[in-house]
Specification:
Number of domains: 1
Shape: elongated
Strand order of the largest sheet: 1-2-3-4-7-8-9
Number of helices: 0
Structural class: mainly beta
CATH topology: Porin
Strand content: over 45%
CATH class: Mainly Beta
Length: 133
């Protein structure tokens, strides 16, 4: 389970009739429910770049970012993370609707980039809903 807060950037680049590049800061708490081992918790923070395609009431987008995460344990199911510190790489796509609502699909990969062995890493795939506060 993941609960996050996002803050959109005020800036945008390469704005054309096709779309624009923008982004957001993402901070999140994730609860990893363990079936084989004890549960785990993580806190993460990432800058995320978003290419938002032009549209009136619906705007398709793609996103990518690299951030950092801290896990409460170095073991997650059968994966040995090597250290509590992990990098968080993400890609995703979805639709933004008028009124600040969004649905999307996201893949996140956690790894310590070989800083400490073992470095099994872990992936998370999600369908998400976002609403503006």
């Amino acid at each position: 389970y993941r609960l996050g807060l996002q803050s959109n950037w005020d800036a945008s680049w390469w704005q054309t009739s096709v779309g624009r590049l923008t982004g957001y800061w993402d901070g999140a708490y994730t609860y990893w429910d363990g079936d084989e081992t004890a549960s785990n918790h993580s806190l993460s923070f990432a800058p995320v770049f978003v290419y938002e395609f032009a549209g009136e009431s619906v705007k398709p987008y793609i996103e990518a970012g690299i951030g950092v995460a801290a896990f409460s344990s170095t073991e997650l199911e059968s994966n040995e993370l090597g250290s509590s510190f992990q990098f968080e790489d993400r890609i995703g796509f979805g639709l933004r609707f008028a009124g600040g609502h969004e649905i999307g699909v996201r893949a996140i990969h956690y790894s310590n980039a070989g800083i400490k062995e073992p470095n099994d890493g872990v992936e998370s795939y999600s369908l998400h809903y976002r609403m503006a506060l």
